[in-house]
Amino acid sequence: MKTAAWTRKEGKSATGGLNAKGRASAKAEGMNLKPPVKSGDNPRRASFLARMGNIPGPEMKDGKPTRLLLSLNAWGASSKADAKAKSKAISARNKAK
Length: 97
Fold this sequence. Notes:
mainly alpha
């Protein structure tokens, strides 16, 4: 039996995250996926950037960006350090409101 598409390459987007087939297979398994918040001062975006900025592992492998870096780029960060900085800035702006 094959594993779900969201766990295999065919369910993953080349630019990071899941494609339509991956999202459909995750939903079929009962997951409640929310759409990404790729800009603005949404607290979910700050949380995502903080988590991904602290994940161990390389940003580049064999001269190509890893899925980690592709996801960070899709959410508006250019590196793990940039993700941490943006997360802090977004959180600070949200507290000031």
